[in-house]
Write a structure and sequence with these properties.
Number of helices: 5
Oligomer: single chain
Order of helices and strands: EEHHHHEEEH
Radius of gyration: 16 Å
Structural class: alpha+beta
Number of strands: 5
Helix content: 25-40%
Strand content: 5-15%
Shape: globular
Amino acid sequence: MHGSTKFRIKTIKEGRNFGTKAVWYGSTKVKISDPTKTIVDIFDDPKLVGGMSVVYDIFKEYSESDYCDFELLRRYAKKMKNKTVFKRLGFIIDTKFDSPPEEFEGLKEEISAGYSKFDPQITNTIIIEKWKLKVPVSWKREYDRKE
């Protein structure tokens, strides 16, 4: 805790420390992630922000902002070496976007064969075969509306 601000420290695997810039906080140099790396980080670990509903809200804002760079997002996602990032991203795009950005064509080829949890913090009981994801009922209903 610094003043009234709480910080959560997370150790990251080697090779995942990219997409950052140095900023000075007083006399201390601190690395912070750029907006695209932040998006990839929360798709990698949704509990950092409170789950996939919050991830979606943040991603929607990002996709409508001047910071949005889908090509860079895809490159960063590959560097994370976590295929679940692609599964969650693909599912969100299928569920919430009317037409997927062209940068995400072929996204399905980036996923692994095993099944992953869409949101590790809640019960995920339904399988979405296309994205190899176990999702909660509420997200399945939303996904079905788009299909």
